[in-house]
Amino acid sequence: MSWEQERDENERLKAQRGMIRQVPESVGTDGSLRPAPESCRTETQLELFQTVPYSYDFVEKLLNQLPRQRQREHFRKLYLREYRSVEMGGERKANLFLRDLLGNRLKKVFAEYRVDVAFMQSFAREPDFLLDRKMWDEFDRTLTTVKTKATYVDDDNAEQNFVRKFNQFAHREMSKGTVPFYLLGSQKLSELAYKIATSFSNVQRAFLDAHLALQQEFTTAEINGLMLRIYGFCGKVAAAIGFPLAHWDRYKSKGIIRQEYIDCTLMKICDEKYWVRNMQKLQKQMIEHIAIACGEVKKHYSSYVSRNGLMDWRQQMKKNYDFLKSMIIENVDDPAEQAELFDMYLRSSANPALRRLEMMTRLNGLEQWADETEHHALFLTLTAPSAFHATLSHGEPNPKWNGASPRKTHQYLNRVWAQFRALLAKRDIGFYGMRVAEPHHDATPHWHLLVYVDKKHRDEVVELFKRKALELDGNERGAKQHRCKVEDIDHEKGSATAYIAKYISKNIDGFAGDEERSDEDPEMLLKDNAKRARAWASIWGIRQFQFYGDAGVGVWRELRRLTAGDITDEELEEMRICADVGCYASYLQRQGGAMVKRADIKARLHYEETEPNQFGETRQKIDGVRLTRCLAWVKSRLKKWVIKRKPSTKPSTKQGECSANSGEFSPPWTCVSNCNHPKGKLSVNDIAEMMKIHRNEIEQIKFCLSLHKISSRWVTDYRLCRLVLGDKVGIYGGMFIHWDGRELVIE
């Protein structure tokens, strides 16, 4: 559309809107007149008000639950379509349609999320009962006494009392701000995260100050007990607002967890970024779940993931790639040795193409090993009951939908699989293979499993699989045909690997399917299918591919890093040769074969412990391989690398303009400027000019600040300019930082 056409279209819409505005009143069914409300801003809203003036408020109240303006407009049009579909009683029919579609279905969605943090957007203070010493004494009693039936009753009463007080306070505070959690913008979300983190920090500080005021010495065991009490109290608050702490389920069942977990968790809940990450993740899932409930995720419209969800995923992937392209890795011992971080990504198993090749190599190896041991291959499909599906196969809403999210459905499938494995273990039936989790057109996950078993156990395995798959709602129509499918691998049609290769390709990179269509949506190409499947898995945190009964791929990857002569042990060298030539079956045989117990694996990974992060957490980092029978190990990662920002090579456009004009000052080429810097306090103009001239250097400083986990609120533009000038800047806790022209030095 040219600009003239766009101008004419805008004028036409403006004139049409003006004509509608000329009729400020609508005639109701009783003949009375009603003025148009201020909320009428779009054409569809005005048309809706003109059509059903006395149902307008009811419709808008339902539509205001939706997070996107486009969704609200879509359902206004659907409402008007239902209204006009009958000659008489159109308003009643349309109201029932919208109430069922949005009222009932959205209630099911919101019931899945116990997020009650909206009131905390106006959280100016902590409730008094959080600092009540009697409540702390109750927690102390529950941890130091042996529970009887009476104490269980007391604990239940205390729990109900806590929840009652919390709900009363929440109701009072929610009156100050009633915006639902999933509608909060990024700025409001950050403010909310800051208030929550500050509240937890204040509660912990008040509790510790109260005990320090007693002026008595505490033993290590007593200190650990105090920290456990704080964890239990903060855990109740976090669970009440919908964000249970890490290891909370274990604490509720056992009453105790490891001390390092307590320390890390208590530090995390005082960190603003921790809450921002968790809230953003849950908010994305809620918005996507609402889109599923509204019928925006289905074939012929937007399979697997909503259009907005796919767009957000693509934007995030672009940001990830831009970050990788802007960074390099540098050898710590030899800074001259550098490499592009993006090139390293393309050469790693994080690259979908290489990941697919690695999985195909492993599958070929498993199949070769199974053929030699004469094991039977089964191809199983596990699908959830119809109540877990939001949309029917022809695209209409499922009236039996229970409101389950894709993640909850995946957890159900995982539970069925775990129970099936337990039945096999009780009967001493070994199995191994791979499973693929992929979505139906409405985002409901289902599993495809390649399972190898001994031929004599084939019938028993199939019988147990069908029993567990149909345990829930197994009598519904079509359950036996669609809920659990069993197919014996026919080697005349193709290998076992070929059966599952299609499902790997369609869910990772769409390889060898340029013109091939998706079986879920015939209008969608296989490559688009792969992108949507990856976006779906990313939003819901679902693991798409998993091997079981295998010796593990970690040792295989590390052995492929090594070369001839690096290993002196003959047994480990044989494994290295197998990995080097890509024969996974031979490698698997030397590891003990499929279904080998972990205690009997021949070679394992060797780890080194990293330095603690800001929360005191350490992690195990792979640095080699070792044999189980001895302590000797071989180092596979000979160099240590550090990630740094790529140095800028091209001058900016403004720099080029300045250098072309000899009458203007040019930004310095180095980090150190030889000109005289302003003395004393910088003025606003000085700060603005320095921020412009030293833009690249300030970006480097900001990046270093983020690496050191120093919040941007501690370093203003004035302080950034002082750092550029070489001054020391104080932040928090008596810490000082200064910029040496290349690195940020913390003192």
Automatic annotation (TrEMBL):
Ranges in a coiled coil: none
Entry-linked InterPro entries: Replication_gene_A-like (IPR008766)
Single Gene Ontology BP annotation: DNA replication
Signal peptide range: none
Domain Replication gene A protein-like: 188-510
A Gene Ontology molecular function term of the record: hydrolase activity
Function: Possible endonuclease which induces a single-strand cut and initiates DNA replication.
Protein name per Swiss-Prot or TrEMBL: Bacteriophage replication protein A domain protein
Natural source organism: Pasteurella bettyae CCUG 2042
